[in-house]
Amino acid sequence: MAIDAFVDRYQKERRNTESLKWDALEERFEDADLLPLWVADMEFQTPETVTNALINRIQHGVFGYSLDNADYFRSFSAWQEKRHNIHLQKEWLRFSTGVVQSLYHLIQCFSEKGDGVLIQPPVYYPFFHAVKDTERKLVVSPLKSENGQYRFDLKDFEEKLRVEKPKLFILCSPHNPVGRIWDEDELLEVLSLCKKHGVLVIADEIHQDFGVGNKKFVSTLNIADGSFHDCLILCNAPSKTFNLASLLHSHIIIPDDKLRRQFDQRIIFYQQTENNLLGQLAGQTAYETGEEWLDGLLGVIRLNYEILINRLKKFPAIIVSPLEGTYLAWIDLTTVIPRKKIKEIVQKKAQLAVDYGEWFSEECEGFIRLNLATTPTILKQAVDQLVEALESYEGEFN
Protein backbone atom coordinates (compact mmCIF):
# COMPACT_ATOMS: atom_id res chain seq x y z
CA MET A 1 0.00 0.00 0.00
CA ALA A 2 1.34 3.44 -0.93
CA ILE A 3 2.35 5.67 1.96
CA ASP A 4 -0.15 8.44 1.19
CA ALA A 5 -2.94 5.90 0.81
CA PHE A 6 -2.09 4.27 4.14
CA VAL A 7 -1.99 7.60 5.98
CA ASP A 8 -5.24 8.86 4.44
CA ARG A 9 -7.00 5.61 5.23
CA TYR A 10 -5.80 4.95 8.77
CA GLN A 11 -4.80 8.22 10.49
CA LYS A 12 -6.99 9.18 13.44
CA GLU A 13 -7.46 12.24 15.61
CA ARG A 14 -6.74 10.97 19.12
CA ARG A 15 -7.41 13.98 21.30
CA ASN A 16 -10.25 13.48 23.78
CA THR A 17 -10.29 9.70 23.34
CA GLU A 18 -8.69 8.84 26.71
CA SER A 19 -5.36 8.55 24.90
CA LEU A 20 -2.41 8.43 27.28
CA LYS A 21 -0.18 10.02 24.66
CA TRP A 22 -2.51 12.93 23.83
CA ASP A 23 -4.77 13.42 26.83
CA ALA A 24 -2.26 13.11 29.68
CA LEU A 25 0.05 15.91 28.57
CA GLU A 26 -0.98 18.25 31.37
CA GLU A 27 -0.53 15.50 33.95
CA ARG A 28 2.79 14.17 32.61
CA PHE A 29 4.42 17.32 31.16
CA GLU A 30 2.44 20.18 32.74
CA ASP A 31 1.49 21.50 29.30
CA ALA A 32 -1.57 20.26 27.40
CA ASP A 33 -0.51 22.04 24.19
CA LEU A 34 2.63 20.03 23.49
CA LEU A 35 2.92 17.92 20.34
CA PRO A 36 3.27 14.34 21.65
CA LEU A 37 5.86 11.96 20.26
CA TRP A 38 6.55 10.05 23.44
CA VAL A 39 4.76 6.85 24.50
CA ALA A 40 5.14 4.05 21.93
CA ASP A 41 1.76 3.76 20.28
CA MET A 42 0.49 5.11 16.96
CA GLU A 43 -1.80 7.66 15.35
CA PHE A 44 -3.14 4.93 13.08
CA GLN A 45 -6.18 2.75 13.58
CA THR A 46 -5.78 -1.00 13.57
CA PRO A 47 -6.81 -2.91 10.40
CA GLU A 48 -10.54 -2.71 9.60
CA THR A 49 -10.74 -6.48 9.76
CA VAL A 50 -9.79 -6.30 13.43
CA THR A 51 -12.35 -3.59 14.17
CA ASN A 52 -15.05 -5.54 12.36
CA ALA A 53 -14.25 -8.76 14.22
CA LEU A 54 -14.52 -6.91 17.54
CA ILE A 55 -17.81 -5.26 16.55
CA ASN A 56 -19.30 -8.59 15.55
CA ARG A 57 -18.24 -10.18 18.84
CA ILE A 58 -19.46 -7.25 20.92
CA GLN A 59 -22.85 -7.34 19.24
CA HIS A 60 -23.32 -10.82 20.68
CA GLY A 61 -23.58 -8.98 23.98
CA VAL A 62 -22.39 -11.68 26.40
CA PHE A 63 -18.96 -11.35 27.99
CA GLY A 64 -18.91 -14.17 30.50
CA TYR A 65 -16.03 -16.51 31.23
CA SER A 66 -14.45 -17.67 27.99
CA LEU A 67 -12.18 -20.36 26.62
CA ASP A 68 -9.05 -19.80 24.59
CA ASN A 69 -9.85 -19.77 20.89
CA ALA A 70 -8.73 -23.10 19.49
CA ASP A 71 -7.55 -21.43 16.26
CA TYR A 72 -5.47 -18.72 17.94
CA PHE A 73 -2.23 -20.68 18.03
CA ARG A 74 -2.55 -21.63 14.38
CA SER A 75 -2.83 -17.97 13.36
CA PHE A 76 -0.09 -16.77 15.70
CA SER A 77 2.38 -19.51 14.80
CA ALA A 78 1.75 -19.06 11.06
CA TRP A 79 2.65 -15.38 11.40
CA GLN A 80 5.81 -16.18 13.36
CA GLU A 81 6.89 -18.76 10.82
CA LYS A 82 6.21 -16.60 7.77
CA ARG A 83 7.63 -13.32 9.06
CA HIS A 84 10.46 -14.60 11.26
CA ASN A 85 11.08 -18.29 10.53
CA ILE A 86 10.15 -19.12 14.14
CA HIS A 87 8.70 -22.60 14.63
CA LEU A 88 6.56 -22.77 17.77
CA GLN A 89 4.89 -25.59 19.62
CA LYS A 90 1.47 -25.01 21.12
CA GLU A 91 2.40 -26.20 24.60
CA TRP A 92 5.05 -23.47 24.84
CA LEU A 93 2.49 -20.65 24.79
CA ARG A 94 1.10 -18.82 27.80
CA PHE A 95 -0.85 -15.55 27.90
CA SER A 96 -0.52 -12.34 29.89
CA THR A 97 -2.03 -8.86 29.87
CA GLY A 98 1.17 -7.27 28.57
CA VAL A 99 4.91 -7.70 28.27
CA VAL A 100 5.65 -5.44 31.24
CA GLN A 101 3.24 -7.43 33.40
CA SER A 102 4.94 -10.59 32.13
CA LEU A 103 8.30 -9.29 33.33
CA TYR A 104 6.93 -8.79 36.83
CA HIS A 105 5.49 -12.32 36.86
CA LEU A 106 8.64 -13.93 35.46
CA ILE A 107 10.95 -12.14 37.89
CA GLN A 108 8.82 -13.37 40.78
CA CYS A 109 8.56 -16.89 39.38
CA PHE A 110 12.26 -17.44 38.70
CA SER A 111 14.08 -15.46 41.39
CA GLU A 112 13.79 -14.50 45.04
CA LYS A 113 13.93 -11.16 46.81
CA GLY A 114 17.50 -9.92 46.84
CA ASP A 115 18.54 -11.90 43.76
CA GLY A 116 20.27 -10.01 40.98
CA VAL A 117 18.60 -9.16 37.67
CA LEU A 118 20.84 -7.89 34.88
CA ILE A 119 19.75 -5.28 32.32
CA GLN A 120 21.60 -3.25 29.67
CA PRO A 121 20.94 0.50 29.80
CA PRO A 122 19.99 2.64 28.07
CA VAL A 123 16.93 0.42 28.02
CA TYR A 124 13.13 0.56 28.27
CA TYR A 125 12.56 2.08 31.70
CA PRO A 126 9.93 -0.41 32.98
CA PHE A 127 12.83 -2.90 33.16
CA PHE A 128 14.25 -0.82 36.03
CA HIS A 129 10.85 -0.59 37.71
CA ALA A 130 10.18 -4.33 37.44
CA VAL A 131 13.46 -5.16 39.16
CA LYS A 132 13.12 -2.59 41.93
CA ASP A 133 9.39 -3.11 42.55
CA THR A 134 9.92 -6.84 43.07
CA GLU A 135 12.76 -6.11 45.53
CA ARG A 136 15.47 -7.67 43.41
CA LYS A 137 19.00 -6.35 43.07
CA LEU A 138 19.55 -4.25 39.96
CA VAL A 139 22.67 -5.25 38.03
CA VAL A 140 23.61 -3.17 34.98
CA SER A 141 25.94 -3.80 32.07
CA PRO A 142 25.63 -0.68 29.92
CA LEU A 143 25.72 -0.90 26.16
CA LYS A 144 28.71 0.67 24.43
CA SER A 145 28.15 3.42 21.88
CA GLU A 146 30.41 4.52 19.06
CA ASN A 147 28.92 7.57 17.33
CA GLY A 148 25.41 6.36 18.15
CA GLN A 149 25.96 2.76 17.06
CA TYR A 150 25.38 0.53 20.09
CA ARG A 151 26.74 -2.91 20.88
CA PHE A 152 27.10 -5.26 23.83
CA ASP A 153 30.06 -4.73 26.14
CA LEU A 154 30.86 -8.43 26.38
CA LYS A 155 33.80 -8.01 28.74
CA ASP A 156 31.71 -6.06 31.24
CA PHE A 157 28.73 -8.35 30.66
CA GLU A 158 30.67 -11.47 31.62
CA GLU A 159 32.30 -9.68 34.54
CA LYS A 160 28.85 -8.78 35.91
CA LEU A 161 27.70 -12.38 35.47
CA ARG A 162 30.78 -13.68 37.27
CA VAL A 163 30.93 -11.18 40.13
CA GLU A 164 27.28 -10.22 40.73
CA LYS A 165 25.86 -13.70 39.96
CA PRO A 166 22.42 -12.52 38.78
CA LYS A 167 19.66 -15.07 38.45
CA LEU A 168 18.06 -13.39 35.43
CA PHE A 169 19.03 -11.34 32.40
CA ILE A 170 16.36 -9.26 30.63
CA LEU A 171 17.28 -8.80 26.97
CA CYS A 172 15.58 -6.20 24.76
CA SER A 173 15.57 -7.40 21.14
CA PRO A 174 15.08 -5.35 19.00
CA HIS A 175 16.41 -2.82 21.45
CA ASN A 176 14.29 0.02 22.79
CA PRO A 177 15.41 2.83 22.69
CA VAL A 178 18.65 2.48 20.65
CA GLY A 179 16.98 0.78 17.68
CA ARG A 180 19.38 -2.14 17.26
CA ILE A 181 18.48 -5.45 15.70
CA TRP A 182 21.12 -7.64 17.26
CA ASP A 183 23.22 -9.79 14.94
CA GLU A 184 22.97 -13.54 15.30
CA ASP A 185 26.61 -13.67 16.44
CA GLU A 186 25.95 -11.04 19.11
CA LEU A 187 22.99 -12.96 20.46
CA LEU A 188 24.96 -16.20 20.41
CA GLU A 189 27.67 -14.62 22.55
CA VAL A 190 25.37 -13.25 25.26
CA LEU A 191 23.23 -16.40 25.37
CA SER A 192 26.34 -18.56 25.63
CA LEU A 193 27.65 -16.48 28.52
CA CYS A 194 24.32 -16.69 30.32
CA LYS A 195 24.17 -20.44 29.90
CA LYS A 196 27.76 -20.77 31.09
CA HIS A 197 26.93 -18.86 34.27
CA GLY A 198 23.52 -20.44 34.88
CA VAL A 199 21.51 -17.29 34.17
CA LEU A 200 17.95 -17.46 32.82
CA VAL A 201 17.34 -15.13 29.86
CA ILE A 202 14.02 -13.29 29.50
CA ALA A 203 13.87 -11.85 25.98
CA ASP A 204 11.49 -8.96 25.28
CA GLU A 205 10.88 -9.25 21.53
CA ILE A 206 7.76 -7.10 21.31
CA HIS A 207 9.27 -4.95 18.52
CA GLN A 208 10.07 -8.01 16.38
CA ASP A 209 7.84 -6.90 13.48
CA PHE A 210 9.52 -3.51 13.04
CA GLY A 211 12.54 -4.26 10.90
CA VAL A 212 12.77 -0.90 9.15
CA GLY A 213 16.37 -1.05 7.95
CA ASN A 214 18.19 -3.68 5.92
CA LYS A 215 18.70 -6.08 8.82
CA LYS A 216 16.43 -9.03 9.39
CA PHE A 217 15.28 -9.71 12.93
CA VAL A 218 16.59 -12.95 14.42
CA SER A 219 14.72 -14.37 17.40
CA THR A 220 16.59 -15.75 20.38
CA LEU A 221 14.53 -18.91 19.88
CA ASN A 222 16.42 -19.60 16.66
CA ILE A 223 19.97 -19.06 17.89
CA ALA A 224 22.14 -22.17 17.51
CA ASP A 225 19.13 -24.17 16.32
CA GLY A 226 17.34 -23.80 19.64
CA SER A 227 20.28 -24.82 21.82
CA PHE A 228 19.32 -22.24 24.45
CA HIS A 229 15.71 -23.27 24.94
CA ASP A 230 16.52 -24.60 28.40
CA CYS A 231 17.59 -21.16 29.64
CA LEU A 232 15.28 -18.88 27.67
CA ILE A 233 11.81 -17.38 28.02
CA LEU A 234 10.47 -15.07 25.33
CA CYS A 235 7.83 -12.32 25.51
CA ASN A 236 6.05 -10.74 22.56
CA ALA A 237 2.60 -9.48 21.59
CA PRO A 238 0.41 -8.26 18.75
CA SER A 239 -0.20 -5.05 20.67
CA LYS A 240 2.89 -3.14 19.51
CA THR A 241 2.58 -4.32 15.92
CA PHE A 242 -1.12 -3.54 15.44
CA ASN A 243 -1.70 -0.71 17.98
CA LEU A 244 -3.74 -2.85 20.39
CA ALA A 245 -2.12 -2.04 23.75
CA SER A 246 -5.35 -1.25 25.61
CA LEU A 247 -6.78 -4.70 24.83
CA LEU A 248 -4.28 -6.25 27.28
CA HIS A 249 -3.12 -9.36 25.45
CA SER A 250 0.42 -10.72 25.11
CA HIS A 251 2.43 -13.95 24.92
CA ILE A 252 4.93 -15.71 27.15
CA ILE A 253 6.77 -18.45 25.26
CA ILE A 254 8.50 -21.09 27.40
CA PRO A 255 10.10 -23.88 25.33
CA ASP A 256 11.57 -25.82 28.27
CA ASP A 257 9.31 -28.32 30.07
CA LYS A 258 10.87 -27.77 33.49
CA LEU A 259 10.66 -23.97 33.28
CA ARG A 260 7.10 -24.21 32.02
CA ARG A 261 6.03 -26.38 34.95
CA GLN A 262 7.66 -23.99 37.39
CA PHE A 263 5.86 -21.06 35.77
CA ASP A 264 2.49 -22.83 35.83
CA GLN A 265 2.87 -23.77 39.50
CA ARG A 266 3.56 -20.21 40.61
CA ILE A 267 1.59 -18.01 38.23
CA ILE A 268 -1.72 -18.85 39.88
CA PHE A 269 -0.59 -16.80 42.89
CA TYR A 270 -0.02 -13.67 40.79
CA GLN A 271 -2.88 -13.43 38.32
CA GLN A 272 -6.09 -14.92 37.07
CA THR A 273 -5.37 -17.42 34.36
CA GLU A 274 -8.39 -16.59 32.18
CA ASN A 275 -7.52 -14.90 28.90
CA ASN A 276 -8.79 -11.58 27.55
CA LEU A 277 -11.50 -12.54 25.07
CA LEU A 278 -11.43 -9.37 22.97
CA GLY A 279 -7.66 -9.02 23.08
CA GLN A 280 -7.19 -12.55 21.82
CA LEU A 281 -9.77 -12.06 19.07
CA ALA A 282 -8.08 -8.84 17.95
CA GLY A 283 -4.66 -10.46 17.94
CA GLN A 284 -5.81 -13.51 16.02
CA THR A 285 -7.59 -11.42 13.39
CA ALA A 286 -4.57 -9.15 13.01
CA TYR A 287 -2.25 -12.10 12.47
CA GLU A 288 -4.62 -13.54 9.88
CA THR A 289 -5.38 -10.37 7.93
CA GLY A 290 -2.93 -7.61 8.93
CA GLU A 291 0.11 -8.21 6.74
CA GLU A 292 -0.71 -5.61 4.08
CA TRP A 293 -1.53 -3.10 6.84
CA LEU A 294 1.82 -3.70 8.55
CA ASP A 295 3.78 -3.38 5.33
CA GLY A 296 2.06 -0.05 4.69
CA LEU A 297 2.91 1.13 8.20
CA LEU A 298 6.57 0.17 7.78
CA GLY A 299 6.70 2.41 4.71
CA VAL A 300 5.44 5.34 6.78
CA ILE A 301 8.03 4.72 9.51
CA ARG A 302 10.87 4.54 6.98
CA LEU A 303 9.73 7.80 5.39
CA ASN A 304 9.48 9.51 8.78
CA TYR A 305 13.01 8.40 9.67
CA GLU A 306 14.26 9.89 6.38
CA ILE A 307 12.42 13.13 7.13
CA LEU A 308 14.02 13.26 10.58
CA ILE A 309 17.53 12.64 9.26
CA ASN A 310 17.22 15.12 6.40
CA ARG A 311 15.78 17.94 8.50
CA LEU A 312 18.41 17.49 11.22
CA LYS A 313 21.23 17.91 8.67
CA LYS A 314 21.19 21.58 9.64
CA PHE A 315 22.87 20.39 12.85
CA PRO A 316 25.44 17.79 11.72
CA ALA A 317 26.76 17.39 15.26
CA ILE A 318 23.47 15.81 16.39
CA ILE A 319 23.78 12.02 16.56
CA VAL A 320 20.78 9.95 15.53
CA SER A 321 21.34 6.24 16.13
CA PRO A 322 20.81 4.10 13.02
CA LEU A 323 17.25 2.76 13.10
CA GLU A 324 17.29 -0.98 12.42
CA GLY A 325 14.28 -2.07 14.46
CA THR A 326 11.42 -0.41 16.43
CA TYR A 327 9.72 2.84 15.37
CA LEU A 328 11.61 4.91 17.93
CA ALA A 329 14.42 7.32 17.06
CA TRP A 330 17.21 7.73 19.64
CA ILE A 331 18.76 11.19 19.38
CA ASP A 332 21.82 12.59 21.16
CA LEU A 333 21.47 16.36 21.51
CA THR A 334 24.38 16.82 23.92
CA THR A 335 26.68 18.07 21.15
CA VAL A 336 24.44 21.10 20.54
CA ILE A 337 22.70 21.74 23.88
CA PRO A 338 24.01 21.48 27.45
CA ARG A 339 22.40 18.51 29.18
CA LYS A 340 20.62 20.65 31.74
CA LYS A 341 19.02 22.75 28.98
CA ILE A 342 17.38 19.87 27.10
CA LYS A 343 13.92 20.15 28.64
CA GLU A 344 13.91 23.92 28.28
CA ILE A 345 14.69 23.68 24.55
CA VAL A 346 12.69 20.57 23.64
CA GLN A 347 9.65 21.13 25.83
CA LYS A 348 9.40 24.86 26.43
CA LYS A 349 10.68 26.18 23.10
CA ALA A 350 10.03 23.35 20.63
CA GLN A 351 6.75 22.46 22.38
CA LEU A 352 7.34 18.71 22.11
CA ALA A 353 6.50 15.89 24.51
CA VAL A 354 9.20 13.23 24.20
CA ASP A 355 10.77 10.48 26.27
CA TYR A 356 13.91 11.87 27.89
CA GLY A 357 17.19 9.99 27.84
CA GLU A 358 17.59 9.86 31.61
CA TRP A 359 14.43 7.75 31.79
CA PHE A 360 16.43 5.00 30.06
CA SER A 361 19.78 5.57 31.77
CA GLU A 362 21.23 8.10 34.18
CA GLU A 363 24.10 8.47 31.73
CA CYS A 364 21.81 9.56 28.87
CA GLU A 365 20.61 12.92 30.08
CA GLY A 366 20.58 15.07 26.97
CA PHE A 367 19.17 12.35 24.73
CA ILE A 368 15.57 12.09 23.56
CA ARG A 369 13.47 9.26 22.14
CA LEU A 370 11.12 10.28 19.35
CA ASN A 371 8.12 8.22 18.21
CA LEU A 372 7.99 7.85 14.40
CA ALA A 373 4.69 5.92 14.25
CA THR A 374 2.75 9.01 13.31
CA THR A 375 1.80 10.85 10.15
CA PRO A 376 4.54 12.50 8.07
CA THR A 377 2.71 15.80 8.60
CA ILE A 378 2.97 15.54 12.38
CA LEU A 379 6.57 14.34 12.19
CA LYS A 380 7.57 17.24 9.91
CA GLN A 381 5.90 19.71 12.26
CA ALA A 382 7.69 18.21 15.25
CA VAL A 383 11.13 18.23 13.65
CA ASP A 384 10.63 21.75 12.29
CA GLN A 385 9.71 22.96 15.78
CA LEU A 386 12.82 21.27 17.17
CA VAL A 387 15.07 22.78 14.47
CA GLU A 388 13.58 26.23 15.03
CA ALA A 389 14.18 25.94 18.78
CA LEU A 390 17.76 24.82 18.20
CA GLU A 391 18.39 27.69 15.79
CA SER A 392 16.95 30.14 18.29
CA TYR A 393 19.17 28.76 21.04
CA GLU A 394 22.21 28.84 18.75
CA GLY A 395 21.42 32.43 17.79
CA GLU A 396 21.52 33.55 21.39
CA PHE A 397 25.28 32.93 21.43
CA ASN A 398 26.18 34.30 17.98
From TrEMBL:
Is Thylakoid found in the keyword set? no
Keyword field contains Zinc: no
Note the Pfam families from the entry.
Aminotran_1_2
Q: Which keywords does UniProt give here? A: Aminotransferase, Lyase, Pyridoxal phosphate, Transferase
Q: What is its EC number?
A: 4.4.1.13
Co-factor requirement: pyridoxal 5'-phosphate
A Gene Ontology molecular function term of the record: cysteine-S-conjugate beta-lyase activity
Read off the InterPro entries from this record: Aminotransferase_I/II_large, C-S_lyase_PatB-like, Class-II_PLP-Dep_Aminotrans, PyrdxlP-dep_Trfase, PyrdxlP-dep_Trfase_major, PyrdxlP-dep_Trfase_small
* First and last residue of the signal peptide: none
Tell me where in this chain the Aminotransferase class I/classII large domain is found. 81-385
Q: Which family does it belong to?
A: Belongs to the class-II pyridoxal-phosphate-dependent aminotransferase family. MalY/PatB cystathionine beta-lyase subfamily.
Official protein name in the record: cysteine-S-conjugate beta-lyase
Q: Which organism is it from?
A: Jeotgalibaca ciconiae
